[in-house]
Write a structure and sequence with these properties.
The protein has 13 helices and eight strands. The chain is 52% helix and 11% strand. The strands form three sheets. A four-stranded antiparallel beta sheet has the order 6-7-3-8. A two-stranded antiparallel sheet has the order 1-2. With 342 residues, the protein is of the alpha+beta class. The longest helix is centred in the last third of the chain and has 33 residues. The mean pLDDT is 91.
């Protein structure tokens, strides 16, 4: 009983800390910075290493995630009377950028087929999962409008393998090392290396691109994004092992993150310039990483949604750049508050 009381006390202390952090980090800044029209205006910074926008006073890009938003802070962000929001988000943008710039056949094909990308990655990594799919012992996806699946799904039967595949899908873009993966997963370096090689076996183009990009960074001291923006990395050929390792990871990460920033920035410009959105009375309010928020009249929401999707799926049309080798997937929803539109 004493132990139970102690656990409840520790849990209460942790909850108090979380409540305090929520009040001081989110609620107070919003209340302090709201204007006389009950609107909040942040500052957006362009001067970041990858070109991603950052936000301050207040940091509107760092509001609580939906699963952690116990007070529904995002529900306080509401449209003006008679207006509504469109919240549009790119799906797996960085992975699609990686597929495009490496011209990786298996990734391009996985995105073309659609469905669960991480399950398809697991199938490519583990022959026994591919065999189970081929023999119809498990399914990659299932349309639940047709009822319950006839056999288990890959994500259920091979959950551990799919989880590793998902981790690698995102870790590769950040230049994750074998040592880092071993530490994250609590496995030996040899096991991490074996899992990493399984990922690369199905995607040799990615490894070749990484090696080429790192060699160029060492030779020239910089890398570029898809639109040719530079990031200088003089440490790539330096004497410090730690600094060189950081530069090598940045050489992999920057073309992915920076090119994703290129896509989002061009999409924002296209949304801002859209004569159709202006005609319908819609305007761009905010960008949060791969997501944009617009506000406009409720009666035109369907037409505005179509235009938003078109602009975001084709960000380079107006500048003469070739489209990506993979389709840009955009999830767009409408509601009267930011919380309800997510």
């Amino acid at each position: 009983e004493a132990g139970k009381r102690a656990c409840r006390a520790i849990g209460a202390l942790a909850a108090v800390g979380q409540v305090d952090a929520t009040i001081n980090n989110f609620l107070v800044p919003l209340q302090a910075l709201v204007d006389r029209h009950q609107r909040v205006h942040c500052s957006l910074n362009l001067n970041t290493e990858t070109g991603r926008l950052s936000s301050r006073r207040p940091n509107l890009q760092n509001q609580p995630a939906l699963e952690k938003d116990q007070y529904k802070i995002r529900d306080a962000f509401i449209a003006e009377e008679g207006q509504t929001f469109i919240v549009a988000d790119y799906g797996q943008l960085e992975l699609r950028i990686l597929a495009h710039i490496t011209n990786c056949a298996s990734m391009i094909e996985a995105f073309r087929q659609g469905g669960c990308f991480h399950s398809r990655t697991a199938v490519g990594m583990y022959p026994y999962i591919a065999e189970a799919v081929a023999q119809n012992r498990v399914l990659l996806e299932w349309d639940y409008s047709k009822g319950q699946p006839t056999v288990p799904l890959v994500k259920d039967t091979f959950a551990a393998e799919r989880r590793k595949a998902k981790t690698l899908n995102f870790s590769i873009a950040y230049g994750k090392t074998v040592h880092g993966l071993a530490a994250d997963w609590g496995i030996t370096k040899g096991e991490a290396e074996e899992t990493l090689e399984a990922w690369y076996r199905d995607r040799p183009e990615v490894k070749a691109w990484q090696q080429k990009t790192q060699a160029l960074a060492q030779r020239h001291g910089y890398v570029t994004t898809m639109m040719g923006r530079y990031r200088r990395l003089p440490e790539a050929s330096g004497e410090s092992g730690a600094a060189r390792g950081h530069a090598m990871r940045a050489a992999i990460n920057t073309p992915i993150q920076g090119s994703a920033a290129d896509v989002v920035m061009m999409a924002m410009l296209k949304l801002w310039r859209s004569a159709e959105l202006k005609r319908l009375g819609w305007r761009l309010l905010l960008q949060i990483h791969d997501e944009v928020i617009l506000e406009g009249p409720k009666e035109h929401v369907d037409a505005a949604m179509r235009e938003v999707r078109h602009c975001m799926e084709n960000p380079f049309d107006d500048v003469g750049l070739a489209p990506l080798r993979v389709h840009l997937d955009v999830d767009a929803k409408s509601a009267d508050s930011w919380y309800k539109a997510k």
